[in-house]
Specification:
- With about 150 residues, the protein is α/β, with parallel strands linked by helices.
- About 25% of the residues lie in helices and about 20% in strands.
- The chain has a seven-stranded mixed β-sheet, with helices on one face.
C-alpha cells in the first residue's frame, strides 16, 4: 500500500474505512468516510471518493475523477480523467465523461462537440428546405402517394 502526500482518508463514524493490500493512492486524493479501496487499485491525483464508496480489485481512477457515495466500482473497471461517476460501474467497464458513460461512446461524442453549432445550423437549413419543398408539392401528388 502506498499513500502519497496531502491525501486525506476520513475516519468512519459507523463501520470502517479500509485501504487494502497493493493499493496505490497518489497525492491530493480524498477518500471519504466508510470507503473501501480494494486490492491493487490505482487512484491518481485529485480524485475524490464520497462516503461509503466501494472500489473492488484492480480499479483504476484517473486524475480528477469524482465518485459519488454509496456505490460500487467493480473489479477491473477504469474511470477516465475528469470522469464523474454517479452509479455503480460494472466489472471491466471503461467509463468517461460527467456523468460517466461508456468510454468508446464518449470519445465519439467529444469529437462531435466542437462541430455541434455548425451541425445545428445545417439541420435547421435542411428542415426549412424540406418544409419549402413540401409546401410547393402539388396536392394531387400527395394524394397519389397515399393511395399507393
Amino acid at each position: 500500500m502506498e499513500i502519497q502526500s496531502l491525501t486525506n482518508i476520513d475516519r468512519a463514524t459507523v463501520g470502517e474505512t479500509r485501504i487494502r493490500r497493493g493499493a496505490k493512492i497518489d497525492s491530493l486524493v480524498q477518500v471519504g468516510h466508510a470507503c473501501e479501496v480494494g486490492e491493487d487499485n490505482i487512484i491518481c491525483s485529485q480524485v475524490g471518493l464520497a462516503g461509503s464508496s466501494i472500489l473492488e480489485k484492480n480499479v483504476l481512477l484517473a486524475g480528477q475523477a469524482g465518485i459519488s457515495g454509496h456505490l460500487t466500482i467493480h473489479d477491473g473497471a477504469i474511470v477516465y480523467a475528469h470522469g464523474g461517476v454517479g452509479g455503480d460501474v460494472e466489472a471491466g467497464a471503461v467509463v468517461a465523461g460527467s456523468p460517466a458513460f461508456d468510454a468508446a461512446t464518449w470519445r465519439r461524442a467529444v469529437t462531435a462537440f466542437p462541430r455541434l453549432p455548425e451541425m445545428l445550423r445545417q439541420m435547421r437549413q435542411l428542415e426549412r428546405r424540406v418544409a419549402e419543398l413540401e409546401a410547393a408539392r402539388p396536392a394531387h401528388s400527395a394524394e397519389t402517394k397515399e393511395s399507393q
